């Protein structure tokens, strides 16, 4: 018997013994056993299962949710035991969506599920903190001077002291102070800054109001009362799909995720739904079971890709080429080879395709020019206003029946004019818009159409007709030419067929650019259009940051939207675009808007566009080495020649296109006083001063100390860690901290023409960075003053999203622990201290407020024709036309706290305007007075109180149409007056007018909102929200020039960039190749949203770090890792001129070679060693980016291309970055 | 007897790990169980957690048939197990799980003025010393680690065909795992202290915290590695199927918080006398059918009488009739057991995932509206059938293919209804179902209302 045999024998014997024991035991115990004696059932013996019962036991469950930076708006149960928060699970009580579809329950994600970790975590901010160096300086000056404001003035204006505390930023040394002292410092800084520099040198930054509306509102309201600008965030985040205002005249309006269910065909394009829309992803997985086809377009094999019936992986940033080729196929097969009545009817009624465009001669050929308007053709006549300007806002089309050019109803000319009353609608009456001029006898001319694939412009024929001595064609005919869809007899270069790779935009042409097989592009287009025919428009594209964060994302999106508009999918349930990138739908919009801008007390407020603000104030403009014409089209007129992007920014500000903060290189309180003293109208006074050269725009010398921002308050946000594109430049110029940037400044000759260049760029512009937070972030680490905020489980607030149609409450599960306070309380106590210090220092002041021409106001008709009439170039100065608007407002700085805590009278007196509709909530003001009580004395005497967070929430709900049907109904009545009686708005008003949501409803359970003039879609229990259904079902115009969805944009600057029509523009390639040495690779650097965080939040959360890799990582392909000898989990460094990142590598074959991912906002906070490159702490995803401004985003004063906060403005895009990656020494130093 | 069982529809799992976090927060975020995840989610292919836990050659979990065809724990008979009580080589070490860590968070607030930004460096939760993070409970999430690492997946290694782990052919899905609450649990059988028990009333397998002596034989015995050793109390702990909630009529935490809405809970009646026999069928590919054979039909009057006789309450019998788990397992036969070859007769079953067609199909210009092409032919799915069979059917691809075909048929059938087209009964018949059967299955999987999931 060998060893093995012996063992077997021993085991056999042991098994036999065990069996015998079991058998005996069975007999002895007299308990039930199975026949084979394998299992014993015992009921005679006690077990101790108490520990788990005790563990599960809890005292109460409180409904709350997670605020800001996440758009999930999920309702959660927060468990409390012995007065401590223990954990959270999701609520499941959303109102039903109906018996024939899935429900919203449960919404949530692992990030939210780990939130309670923060409550008692070691990174919790428990007390107010100030940087020790600053505190020492302040206390010394305070003691010596005996005055907080004088102390602040001295510390910040003494260059040595200033440098001392600014250079300590971000280097630790925070010390605990009392609330009293912290508030005194903050209040003193505000008072001093307003007195010395002006309120527009202060700014507030707090994004995504929908996710904790009261917390956002209270701070924004404080800023608005003191006259400080609020900085926009949606455009700055590059989440704003700038194509939306361009095409729809709407910021962003998208379907709730429940409407994905209605789609018959779903494209997930650059959107990783399971990761970034975790609570909503189930609608996609479930809709597949209803027979929906899902196609995923993504460069990596993503969490979403695994659900796709097909996965297409174009090279990053080339998505537009794929979409353009799909447009080529759809136009060819569904518009030229055959016509589909559903499609042609849709585009005629709801798009600008039939409108006429003039062709301008250029070098013997033609280029697309301006829309032909009633003014062009002299159709207006005297009724169109004295100067005929109204006619300039009335584009025309040809009527098939009469063959004559006519102005249809619903153009911008009908929106604001007296004569347009009742006519601003999409009723065509007897009109039959002619889509094309192509016909047996049509004449044709050759048009130059730019292409950006490295080839010269295409020359292609379009059919034309002569009108009033001008050659005109339709947008549709231009579109066919642009897409390269030929028709017999038209001159020019056309593709022979789909396999012709030489001509844009064939499927074969795109294959060479994207790597997506031509056959796939072709089939996808056909499938999409075919499904749209059969389902009447139920095809949807979910588009995400993967396609939206690019410099040229507007061109990518316009190519997407073309597919949806051509196939009649927009404004249809289950169809259209579904843009989910940082969306922030404040469903109770009107109330939030009114209160956060303090429009109840003072109008107008200052609203600043984020990107130009940071571009100028962080000095990033100094590093742009190329001219503004680097991106211009060869078909342009050379408008940007010899100019720098910063010149265009300055021009947009002086023309009133974009806002400016600060506006002038003088204190606006001094200017306001001067206007007041002069007895002139502000417009008149400013125009005269400018003409005399006595007044200078601050944007023309941003580095002059007179024009610096001085105080910045960040709450509900992590600006420095999360959204600071060009992070190292923020540190260097704005904060004066240490940095890792090595970029060269623009050499002489490449510098701005209109801006003053200081040889020594300022370091440390900000006097005070004030941060409110409950956890430590890059912003709190850099801040001079950190105030401990309550978490979202510690306060009352409201939440809504566009992912679902409900509003629901935050509630305190516990009181804020340690010395934490709610944002609401912090701003109220700050306002109180501020008002005290203002007495005798600021008192009552007159503030000259500068506002740009705003969208959805008559200001959007400031600059007819979309031409640049700069007064600097000799055009007459006309405030409100080619200058901003100017207003002098009175500010009683001693009354700020009182006004913050009460609803002012202007709400009833002057009404609330949202999207051009004004409603007067007198009834609501009375209701609020009864509900909330009134101020007994002081400046707000008799006004309804907003002195608690609950009352503020109550006011937001009471003053919004979505939650107060009476206001919605009033808004629809106003709309009916403008749109005419046949639009059916009375019925809509009737349907909604009795709906009412109060705060306690939202505490009980999420409540569905109602249809309102605030949004473009309809809400009902039996249908899901889909945008623009009000437009398609009630014939209401879009808020654009033609009143229709726009394919064509005729502004001068659009033409200059060659982007009048959808076009393919590749990812930016402005920087020279980064030298990649041995064991280095140069790669495209993408920063998609992470699975383990919501931006920076949760990134440092121990649970999330445990499920991830324990620190910052860069995902790279197997090939790139091999090329530099990197194994999984090795430390690597990514270096480019903007900065350095040190991280561990995650090697994976799901990444394509040549591209790396550093998931969004991996900060320096956790597990980030010093770099080899600089010896300093590396990291932050934005260390390798620098913001670049696209000129077309600066346009203003022209229809839908007009400013409104978070609506139109340059995006802080960051996707076009490249970097070198190398393996570094594996021994790291912290 | 009656058992509360679970089915997870992997075709809906988005890999978000919400279940893991809510479970961890509720049950194991305490000292001694830092590394323990009663519920975890694995990316497949991948090594899982603890690493390579499916390698029973190494860990010797579950049962095997001895030379005489009798079931013995793979870890050996009682004698062998007793001999190894104090030095058990089949016990995963900390590295096989991971060394839990935290960070010096406090430094972010308290760091004195220095020359650079403070950062919180990692520190071991075991010995408190600075550490480097080299492993975690979800290390290969979303195919992290690359082909070399992922090739260590034991299921992949057992495949006969070669699977390419390359960009264009990439495939993955997510596999949430909890204790299987087996009908034939090895952990219970191998415990020297009799501390593990399977509750008679609902089949939940628990560790009696008073009786446990910390021998850890259960850790070795469990082939799913779902029993953990609490190093602070010295006792074994495991998923409790949230019995305090189940007893109150609430779903488990992992089920209710699943945002993919993919977990189903329900009662299964089974014949306890058949269990031993079923676990001992000679061919491991017959285990799936054998386990199905143990389940009893609650509509059968004889079964109801017998159940009532053994004291199963009426409402449990009603629950068994309405059990969504039974529908998925027995009626539609789209749910399959995880690793039946371990012979523990697991009671957490899985609907296998559909997956997109490989690129090859994208390249030809076939008719997009042909249902087979629209949703991909089953034999061209990205995830190799054999891989799924390696997980669910001991390598037999036929049941997996049948389940996937039923899912695909449901989609094709519903697409016609969605687009208002004529029905085609051939679709349902082709997969052995009726149209109303497909529609009922659609309702359960697609609408998945709360009250029908649990």
UniProtKB/TrEMBL annotation, chain A:
<dbReference type="GO" id="GO:0051539">
    <property type="term" value="F:4 iron, 4 sulfur cluster binding"/>
</dbReference>
<keyword id="KW-0411">Iron-sulfur</keyword>
<dbReference type="GO" id="GO:0042128">
    <property type="term" value="P:nitrate assimilation"/>
</dbReference>
<dbReference type="GO" id="GO:0043546">
    <property type="term" value="F:molybdopterin cofactor binding"/>
</dbReference>
<dbReference type="InterPro" id="IPR006468">
    <property type="entry name" value="NarG"/>
</dbReference>
<keyword id="KW-0004">4Fe-4S</keyword>
<keyword id="KW-0500">Molybdenum</keyword>
<keyword id="KW-0472">Membrane</keyword>
<dbReference type="InterPro" id="IPR037943">
    <property type="entry name" value="MopB_CT_Nitrate-R-NarG-like"/>
</dbReference>
<feature type="domain" description="4Fe-4S Mo/W bis-MGD-type">
    <location>
        <begin position="59"/>
        <end position="123"/>
    </location>
</feature>
<dbReference type="InterPro" id="IPR009010">
    <property type="entry name" value="Asp_de-COase-like_dom_sf"/>
</dbReference>
<keyword id="KW-0408">Iron</keyword>
<keyword id="KW-0560">Oxidoreductase</keyword>
<dbReference type="GO" id="GO:0160182">
    <property type="term" value="F:nitrate reductase (quinone) activity"/>
</dbReference>
<dbReference type="GO" id="GO:0005886">
    <property type="term" value="C:plasma membrane"/>
</dbReference>
<dbReference type="InterPro" id="IPR006963">
    <property type="entry name" value="Mopterin_OxRdtase_4Fe-4S_dom"/>
</dbReference>
<dbReference type="InterPro" id="IPR050123">
    <property type="entry name" value="Prok_molybdopt-oxidoreductase"/>
</dbReference>
<dbReference type="Pfam" id="PF00384">
    <property type="entry name" value="Molybdopterin"/>
</dbReference>
<dbReference type="GO" id="GO:0009325">
    <property type="term" value="C:nitrate reductase complex"/>
</dbReference>
<dbReference type="InterPro" id="IPR006657">
    <property type="entry name" value="MoPterin_dinucl-bd_dom"/>
</dbReference>
<dbReference type="InterPro" id="IPR006656">
    <property type="entry name" value="Mopterin_OxRdtase"/>
</dbReference>
<keyword id="KW-0534">Nitrate assimilation</keyword>
<keyword id="KW-1003">Cell membrane</keyword>
<keyword id="KW-0249">Electron transport</keyword>
<protein>
    <recommendedName>
        <fullName>nitrate reductase (quinone)</fullName>
        <ecNumber>1.7.5.1</ecNumber>
    </recommendedName>
</protein>
<dbReference type="GO" id="GO:0046872">
    <property type="term" value="F:metal ion binding"/>
</dbReference>
<keyword id="KW-0813">Transport</keyword>
<dbReference type="Pfam" id="PF01568">
    <property type="entry name" value="Molydop_binding"/>
</dbReference>
<comment type="similarity">
    <text>Belongs to the prokaryotic molybdopterin-containing oxidoreductase family.</text>
</comment>
<keyword id="KW-0479">Metal-binding</keyword>
<dbReference type="InterPro" id="IPR006655">
    <property type="entry name" value="Mopterin_OxRdtase_prok_CS"/>
</dbReference>
<dbReference type="InterPro" id="IPR027467">
    <property type="entry name" value="MopterinOxRdtase_cofactor_BS"/>
</dbReference>
């Amino acid at each position: 018997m060998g060893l093995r045999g012996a063992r077997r024998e021993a085991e056999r014997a042991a098994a036999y013994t065990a069996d015998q024991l079991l058998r005996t035991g069975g007999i002895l115990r007299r308990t039930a056993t199975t026949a084979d004696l394998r299992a014993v059932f015992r009921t005679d013996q006690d077990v101790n299962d108490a520990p788990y019962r005790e563990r599960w036991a809890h005292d109460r469950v409180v409904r709350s949710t997670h605020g800001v930076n996440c758009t999930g708006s999920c309702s959660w149960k927060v468990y409390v035991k012995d007065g401590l928060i223990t954990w959270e699970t999701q609520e499941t009580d959303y109102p039903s969506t109906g018996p024939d579809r899935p429900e919203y329950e449960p919404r949530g994600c692992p990030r939210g599920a780990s939130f309670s970790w923060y409550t008692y975590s070691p990174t919790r901010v428990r007390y107010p903190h100030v940087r020790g160096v600053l505190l020492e300086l302040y206390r010394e000056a305070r003691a010596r001077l005996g005055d907080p404001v004088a102390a602040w003035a001295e510390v910040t204006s003494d260059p040595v002291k200033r440098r001392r505390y600014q250079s300590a930023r971000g280097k630790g040394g925070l010390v605990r102070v009392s609330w009293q002292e912290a508030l005194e410092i903050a209040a003193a800084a505000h008072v001093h800054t307003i007195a010395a520099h002006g309120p527009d040198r202060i700014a507030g930054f707090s994004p995504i109001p929908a996710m904790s509306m009261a917390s956002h509102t209270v701070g924004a309201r404080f800023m608005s009362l003191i006259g400080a600008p609020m900085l926009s965030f949606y455009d700055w985040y590059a989440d704003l799909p700038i194509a939306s205002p361009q095409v729809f005249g709407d910021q962003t309006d998208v379907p709730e995720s429940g409407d994905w269910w209605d789609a018959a065909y779903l494209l997930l394009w650059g959107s990783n739904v399971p990761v970034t829309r975790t609570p909503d992803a189930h609608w996609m997985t479930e809709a597949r079971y209803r027979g929906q086809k899902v196609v995923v377009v993504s460069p990596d094999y993503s969490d979403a890709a695994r659900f796709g019936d097909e996965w297409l992986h174009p090279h990053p940033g080339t998505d537009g080429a794929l979409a353009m080729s799909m447009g080529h196929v759809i136009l060819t097969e569904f518009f030229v080879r055959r016509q589909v009545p559903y499609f042609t009817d849709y585009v005629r009624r709801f798009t600008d395709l039939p409108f006429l465009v003039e062709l301008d001669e250029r070098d013997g050929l033609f280029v697309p020019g301006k829309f032909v308007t009633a003014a062009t053709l002299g159709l207006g006549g005297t009724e169109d206003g004295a100067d005929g300007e109204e006619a300039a806002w009335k584009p025309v089309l040809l009527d098939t029946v009469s063959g004559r050019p006519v102005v249809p109803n619903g153009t911008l000319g009908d929106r604001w004019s007296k004569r347009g009353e009742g006519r601003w609608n999409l009723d065509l009456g007897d009109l039959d818009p002619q889509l094309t001029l192509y016909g047996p006898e049509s004449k044709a001319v050759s048009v130059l159409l730019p292409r950006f694939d490295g080839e010269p412009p295409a020359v292609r024929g379009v059919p034309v007709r002569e009108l009033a001595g001008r050659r005109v064609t339709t947008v549709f005919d231009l579109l066919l030419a642009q897409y390269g869809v030929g028709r017999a007899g038209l001159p020019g270069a056309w593709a022979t067929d789909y396999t012709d790779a030489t001509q844009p935009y064939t499927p074969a042409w795109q294959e060479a650019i994207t790597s997506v097989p031509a056959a796939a592009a072709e089939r996808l287009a056909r499938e999409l259009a075919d499904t749209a025919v059969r389902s009447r428009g139920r095809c949807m594209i979910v588009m995400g940051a993967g396609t939206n964060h690019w410099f040229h994302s507007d061109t990518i999106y316009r190519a997407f939207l073309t597919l949806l508009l051509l196939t009649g999918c927009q404004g249809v349930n289950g169809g259209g675009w579904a843009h989910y990138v940082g969306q922030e739908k404040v469903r109770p919009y009107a109330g939030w808007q009114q209160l956060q801008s303090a429009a109840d007390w003072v109008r107008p407020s200052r609203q600043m566009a984020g990107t130009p603000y940071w571009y100028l104030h962080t000095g990033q403009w100094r590093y742009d080495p190329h001219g503004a014409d680097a991106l211009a089209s060869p078909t342009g007129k050379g408008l940007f020649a010899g100019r720098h992007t910063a010149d265009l920014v300055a021009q947009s500000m002086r023309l009133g296109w974009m806002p400016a903060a600060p506006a002038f290189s003088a204190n606006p309180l001094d200017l306001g006083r001067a206007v007041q003293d002069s007895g002139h109208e502000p417009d008149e006074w400013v125009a005269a001063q400018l003409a005399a050269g006595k007044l200078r725009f601050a944007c023309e010398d941003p580095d002059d100390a007179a024009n610096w921002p001085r105080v910045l308050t960040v709450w509900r946000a992590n600006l420095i860690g999360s959204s600071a594109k060009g992070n190292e430049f923020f540190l260097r110029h704005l904060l004066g901290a240490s940095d890792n940037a090595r970029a060269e400044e623009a050499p002489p000759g490449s510098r701005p023409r209109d801006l003053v260049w200081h040889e020594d760029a300022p370091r440390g512009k900000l006097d005070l960075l004030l941060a409110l937070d409950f956890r430590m972030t890059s912003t709190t680490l850099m801040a001079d003053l950190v105030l401990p905020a309550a978490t979202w489980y510690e306060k009352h607030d409201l939440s809504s999203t566009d992912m679902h149609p409900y509003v629901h409450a935050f509630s305190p599960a516990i009181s804020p622990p340690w010395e934490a306070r709610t944002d609401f309380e912090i701003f109220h106590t700050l306002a109180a201290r501020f008002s005290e210090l203002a007495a005798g220092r600021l008192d009552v002041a007159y503030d000259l407020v500068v506002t740009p021409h705003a969208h959805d106001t008559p200001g959007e008709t400031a600059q007819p024709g979309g031409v640049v009439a700069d007064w600097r170039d000799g055009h007459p100065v006309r405030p409100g036309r080619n200058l901003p608007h100017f207003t002098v407002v009175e500010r009683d700085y001693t009354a700020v706290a009182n006004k913050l805590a009460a609803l002012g009278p202007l709400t009833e007196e002057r009404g609330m305007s949202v999207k051009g509709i004004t409603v007067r909530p007198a009834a609501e003001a009375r209701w609020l007075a009864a509900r909330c009580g009134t101020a007994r004395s002081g400046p707000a005497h008799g006004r309804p109180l907003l002195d608690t967070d609950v009352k503020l929430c109550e006011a937001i709900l009471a003053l919004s149409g979505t939650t107060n049907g009476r206001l919605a109904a009033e808004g629809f009545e106003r709309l009916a007056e403008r749109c005419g009686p046949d639009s059916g708005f009375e019925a809509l008003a009737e349907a909604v007018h009795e709906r009412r949501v109060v705060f306690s409803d939202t505490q009980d359970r999420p409540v569905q909102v109602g249809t309102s003039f605030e949004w473009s879609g309809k809400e009902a229990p039996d249908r899901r929200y889909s945008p623009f259904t009000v437009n398609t079902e009630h014939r209401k115009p879009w808020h654009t020039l033609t009143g229709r969805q726009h394919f064509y944009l005729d502004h001068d600057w659009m033409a200059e960039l060659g982007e009048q029509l959808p076009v393919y523009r590749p990812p930016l390639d402005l920087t020279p190749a980064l030298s990649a040495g041995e064991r280095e690779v140069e790669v495209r650097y993408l920063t998609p949203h992470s699975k383990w965080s919501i931006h920076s939040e949760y990134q440092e959360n121990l649970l999330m770090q445990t499920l991830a890799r324990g620190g910052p990582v860069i995902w790279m392909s197997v090939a790139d890792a091999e090329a530099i000898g990197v194994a999984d989990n090795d430390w690597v460094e990514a270096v480019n001129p903007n900065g350095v990142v040190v991280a561990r590598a995650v090697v994976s074959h799901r990444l394509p070679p040549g591209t790396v991912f550093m998931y969004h906002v991996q900060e320096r906070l956790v597990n980030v060693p010093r770099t080899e490159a600089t010896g300093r702490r590396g990291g932050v995803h934005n260390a390798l980016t620098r913001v670049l401004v696209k000129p077309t985003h600066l346009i203003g004063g022209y229809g839908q291309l007009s400013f409104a906060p978070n609506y139109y403005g340059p995006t802080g895009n960051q996707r076009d970055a490249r970097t070198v990656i190398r393996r570094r020494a594996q021994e790291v130093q912290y | 007897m009656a058992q509360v069982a679970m089915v997870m529809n992997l075709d809906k799992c988005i890999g978000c790990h919400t279940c893991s976090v809510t479970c961890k927060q509720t049950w194991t975020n305490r000292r001694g169980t830092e590394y323990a995840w009663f519920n975890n989610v694995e990316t497949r292919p991948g090594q899982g957690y603890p690493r390579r836990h499916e390698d029973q050659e190494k860990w010797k979990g579950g049962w095997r048939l001895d030379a005489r065809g009798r079931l013995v724990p793979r870890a050996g008979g009682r004698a062998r197990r007793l001999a190894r009580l104090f030095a058990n080589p089949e016990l995963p070490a900390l590295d096989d799980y991971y060394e839990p860590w935290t960070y010096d968070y406090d430094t972010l607030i308290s760091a004195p003025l220095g020359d650079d930004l403070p950062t919180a460096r990692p520190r071991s939760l075991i010995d408190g010393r600075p550490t480097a993070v080299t492993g975690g409970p979800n290390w290969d999430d979303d195919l992290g680690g690359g082909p070399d690492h992922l090739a260590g997946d034991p299921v992949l290694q057992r495949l006969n065909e070669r699977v390419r782990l390359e960009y264009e052919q990439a495939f993955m899905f997510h596999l949430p795992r909890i204790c299987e609450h087996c009908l034939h649990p090895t952990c219970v059988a191998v415990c020297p202290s009799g501390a593990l028990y399977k509750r008679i009333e609902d089949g939940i397998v628990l560790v009696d915290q008073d009786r446990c002596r910390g021998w850890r034989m259960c850790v070795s015995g469990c082939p799913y590695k779902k029993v953990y050793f609490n190093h602070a109390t010295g006792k074994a702990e495991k998923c409790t199927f949230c019995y305090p909630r189940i007893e109150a009529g609430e779903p488990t935490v992992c089920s209710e918080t699943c945002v993919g809405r993919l977990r189903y809970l329900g009662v299964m009646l089974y014949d306890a006398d058949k269990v031993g026999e079923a676990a001992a069928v000679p061919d491991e590919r017959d285990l799936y059918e054998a386990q199905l054979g143990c389940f009893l039909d609650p509509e059968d009057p004889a079964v109801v009488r017998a159940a009532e006789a053994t004291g199963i309450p009426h409402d449990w019998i009603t629950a068994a009739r309405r059990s969504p788990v039974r529908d998925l397992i027995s009626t539609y036969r789209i749910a399959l057991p995880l690793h039946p070859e371990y012979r523990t007769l697991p009671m957490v079953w899985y609907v296998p995932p559909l997956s997109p067609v490989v690129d090859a199909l994208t390249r030809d210009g076939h008719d997009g509206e042909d249902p087979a092409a629209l949703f991909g032919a089953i034999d061209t799915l990205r995830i190799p059938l054999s891989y799924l069979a390696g997980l669910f059917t001991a390598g037999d691809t036929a049941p997996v293919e049948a389940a996937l075909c039923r899912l695909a048929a449901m989609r094709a059938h519903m697409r016609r209804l969605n687009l208002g087209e004529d029905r085609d009964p051939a679709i349902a018949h082709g997969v052995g179902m009726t149209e109303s059967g497909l529609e009922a299955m659609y309702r359960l999987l697609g609408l998945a209302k709360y009250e029908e999931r649990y």
